[in-house]
C-alpha cells in the first residue's frame, strides 16, 4: 500500500482550491485594495493605474495577474472592479471553447465593465485571436455563415478592462502578453504577512487566536494565503472539539500534528520523499523513478506534487545525476549526514555480524 494513499489533490497543503475553500473564500476575500495584505509592489503599481484611470474618467488598461495558485489573483480582479465601481463578468479560458463563446460575452459587456478571464493561458487559439482585436481596438468581427459565403460583420465594443489571470505566464503567446497595459507578478507571502492574513480571517470567522497561534499557522502555510485560511479552519475545529476554542501556539501545533503538517509546512508525502532520499539513498544523487518506487508513488506525483515545494524550500535539488538532499534536509528531519569519505583513504572493513558475538 502506498504510504500516501489519499489523492494528492486532497492534501491539506495543496495550493489549489477545494470545494470547501470555494464555499468560504467569498467571505474571506478582501474587498478593497487597502484590505489586501502584502504584495506591496503589485498593490502600489495597481493603485496608480486605477487612480490615474479614475482621474481621467477613463477605463483602466488591461491587467494581467500572474503567479502560483492561492496568492490572490481572483481576489485582486474583484478588487479592481470594486475600486472602479464597475460590474465584473467572470469567465475562464477553458470555458471558452469557440470564438463565438467569446464574441457573445464581449458583445454583451457594458461600458467600463471588468471582464475577468481566469486561466487565460488555456483559451482556444481562435478565441485568443479574437481577443487581440477586442483588447486593442474594442472591436470584434463576428463571422456569419459558413464556407465561401461567410462574411465578417464588424461589431464595436464599449471600452472595458480585461483582467487576465494565469499560473503560467510563460505559456502566454507574446502578442497576447503585449496587449496588457500592466502585469502584476504575485510573489509568495512572507510569514509576517500570512500572520496578518490569519488574524484577519480569524476575526471574520469569529475565532479567538493569539499572535503566537497565528504565527504557528503562518509558518506552516507555504507562503500561500489559501493554505493559511485552510489550516486556520482545521486548527479551529481542533480547538473547539478538544479545547475551549481559543487558538494558541500550543493548540495550533497539536492540531497540525494531527493533520500531519509539520513545522515548515511539509505534509506526509513531502516527508516520505525526503525520508527515503536521506535514509535509503544517503542523500542521493538518486534518479526520480527509483525515489518514486521507494516512496510507493508514481514518478509524476513525486515530481509535480512534492518536489516543487521541497526545491523552493531548499531541501532538495534536481541535478543531472539525480535528486540530492541539501544540508537543510538532514537538519529538518533531525538526521546526521554520513561523513564524506576522504579521497584515497582505505575504507574500514565493516564488522557485518557485530563484534560482540556470543554475548
Ligand atoms: N493579500 C491577501 N490578503 C488576504 N487574503 C488573501 C490575500 N490573497 C489571497 N487571500 C485569500 O486567499 C484565498 C485565495 O485567493 P484567490 O482565490 O484570489 O487566489 P488565486 O490566485 O485566484 O488562486 P487560483 O490560481 O487557484 O485561482 C482567498 O480566500 C482570499 O481570501
Ligand atoms: Mg483564482
From TrEMBL:
It comes from Kitasatospora atroaurantiaca. Gene3D superfamilies: 1.10.8.60, P-loop containing nucleotide triphosphate hydrolases (3.40.50.300), Winged helix-like DNA-binding domain superfamily/Winged helix DNA-binding domain (1.10.10.10). ATP binds at residues 28-29, 70, 73-75, 136-138, 179, 189, 226. Belongs to the RuvB family. GO terms for molecular function: ATP binding; ATP hydrolysis activity; four-way junction DNA binding; four-way junction helicase activity. It comes from the Bacteria. InterPro entries: AAA+_ATPase (IPR003593), AAA_lid_4 (IPR041445), DNA_helicase_Holl-junc_RuvB (IPR004605), P-loop_NTPase (IPR027417), RuvB-like_N (IPR008824), RuvB_wg_C (IPR008823), WH-like_DNA-bd_sf (IPR036388), WH_DNA-bd_sf (IPR036390). The RuvA-RuvB-RuvC complex processes Holliday junction (HJ) DNA during genetic recombination and DNA repair, while the RuvA-RuvB complex plays an important role in the rescue of blocked DNA replication forks via replication fork reversal (RFR). RuvA specifically binds to HJ cruciform DNA, conferring on it an open structure. The RuvB hexamer acts as an ATP-dependent pump, pulling dsDNA into and through the RuvAB complex. RuvB forms 2 homohexamers on either side of HJ DNA bound by 1 or 2 RuvA tetramers; 4 subunits per hexamer contact DNA at a time. Residues 190-260 are annotated as: Small ATPAse domain (RuvB-S). This is Holliday junction branch migration complex subunit RuvB. Has 3 domains, the large (RuvB-L) and small ATPase (RuvB-S) domains and the C-terminal head (RuvB-H) domain. The head domain binds DNA, while the ATPase domains jointly bind ATP, ADP or are empty depending on the state of the subunit in the translocation cycle. During a single DNA translocation step the structure of each domain remains the same, but their relative positions change. Residues 59-192 form the AAA+ ATPase domain.
